[in-house]
């Protein structure tokens, strides 16, 4: 995004916060093409303006529960090229898992109270807009639940690490197979080996892929 300003759609139901963030981002060189207060308006704004990234609060009208994250999931489905930064005061690990399960590339989740400077927010927006992943450590901890143990990356074979790196970029097993010129079955075997080495047994929700990616991002320093 060096040749032009980052184009941002901002979704925040608090008028004061919305106006304040718009001014701060504009002062840092971003172009806030739309600032809205509902999930419905967020989807309409992205459809109209085609931004580089959308900043989304989780709890929005009318119920103030998960409207924002549901809108973010819809954005991922309809406009996968648009980066999404969830910017909330709440740690919602289950909702974060739903968003990340669609692919970690171009996704961020930061806590409002832990962003000390506008420059940090702008940097996160640029990283997400260019396909990176930015996660607050509290979000990672909430998703992993059992904590992160170091050096598990070192236990992977070079091929397993390639597979995990592509997982972290948001590729499906089919896409990984095409990129590595192997069969989907081979990718599945590598993924199973990764899950075993990371001590991620099958669960009812089968969220091992998300946890493996989060472990990788944490231990390699690729996340927040």
TrEMBL record:
InterPro entries: CheY-like_superfamily (IPR011006), NreC/VraR/RcsB-like_REC (IPR058245), Sig_transdc_resp-reg_receiver (IPR001789), Tscrpt_reg_LuxR_C (IPR000792), WalR-like (IPR039420)
Pfam families: GerE, Response_reg
UniProt organism field: Actinoallomurus liliacearum
CDD domains, A to Z: LuxR_C_like, REC_NarL-like
Protein name from the UniProt record: Response regulator transcription factor
Residues of the HTH luxR-type domain: 149-220
Modification 4-aspartylphosphate occurs at: 57
Keywords: DNA-binding, Phosphoprotein, Transcription, Transcription regulation
Keyword Cytoplasm appears in the UniProt entry: no
Response regulatory domain ranges (all copies): 7-127
Origin superkingdom: Bacteria
Gene3D superfamilies: 3.40.50.2300
PANTHER family with a match to the protein in the record: TRANSCRIPTIONAL REGULATORY PROTEIN NARL-RELATED (PTHR43214:SF24), TWO-COMPONENT RESPONSE REGULATOR (PTHR43214)
